[in-house]
User: Fold this.
Amino acid sequence: MIKSSTIAALADTLRDHVARLQPGDQLPSTRDLVKGHRVSPVSVARALAILVADGLVTTRPGAGTFVAERRPLTAPDAVDSSWQTVALGDRAIDASAIQVYLEAIPAGTIAMAGGYLHHSMRPNRALSSALMRAARLPDAWDRPPLQGVSSLRAWFAESIGGGVTPEDVVITSGGQAAMSVALRAIVPAGAPLLVEAPTYPGALAVARAAGIRPVPVPIDSNGIRPDLLAEAFRVTDARAVYLQPTYQNPTGAVLSPERREQVLAVAHDAGAFIIEDDYARALSHDGPPPPPLIANDVDGRVVHIASLTKPAAPSLRVGALSARGPVAERIRALRIVDDLFVARFLQDAALELVTAPGWPRYLSGLSAELRRRRQRLLAALTEHAPGFQVALIPRGGMHIWVRLPDGTDENAVFAACRQAGVLGSMGRAYFAAESPGPYMRLSFVGAPHLDDLDEGVRRLASAVR
Assistant:
């Protein structure tokens, strides 16, 4: 058996020899190396294999062994990229507030930060069946109509109601993409965008990445305050407001019927658009949700966002933008510029899912499960974290918004929660400006079992203490 020390010694010797040669120079033949170093041909072959693995030499069958091109002396992560600071300018794109929902959950950690259903709650069999049926369609891999598959647009129009037609609907790659298109189509870079305080961090991230300035408008248990919204329009001269009127993220608030009329009137007087993010319409706990704002829109003021991702599965990236008038043309054009179109087989799979007889039954069961989980989380907070304040019991959605005890350091709590094996969403990310206090959004849909919600709150309360 050939000793590895012999091969290693020969490899070191050849490495020194190669260092004195130039790229492309040929090494001595195997016969000459055997004779010169008094080793076996096998030892030579294995020593050369080490040099090949190190990138020092290359072998050409029938020609011999040659010195490889020199590798750069610096590692890729040591490249001097300081010049990019000047070239990129002062625009920052911060995805951290969204990324926290998408990162892998460490083993043993209870997830109470995310915004997607745990896989045990999803219609997995129905999704698989829908995808298989869609894949068998003869045009599954063809390019779809640029605005989206017509029957899917018709389904979205009917589910939205309020006179929305299939021609008003554009299919998008999920709700986040729809929001990005809507904000950029309506609000120019450098202009203000009115948002609820608090609001969805993903909307703030999209706005800031596009150079748009989010301006907060306070909300209460009945949604955004119309009087303060009117004042914000007057002071900022903004031309759009981003709202979640139904099961608002993170508070769960529902804009009251009276305020819905007032908000439409305020936007009319300001000559402004309303971007209505209706992400949670299918996530009701206690009865049907109110009609969307677009249902009472008489002059094309409301741009409506819908999505199948939340009630179905994270990878069903299918959403819809509904708009009327010139803004609809701009939205369609920007949607094409962004990514041309949404994959046809994914649109077909979404249509197969929502038109199957089992879809309404699934939504009914999901509503009941969401209600059970909401109640379990509320009970756990009462028992294990009495110092946490729950201002509103949501009637829909996936979260409960809690105020932590005064003086709580959110950064310290976040670190302590990770160490304790529980993840929640810190409240600061939900405010466009300063936060009025320490908050946390707790999701009740990411944990596998109801008992995990109890344990998660126990860990959370311990971390806060």
User: Anything to note?
Assistant: The radius of gyration is 29 Å.
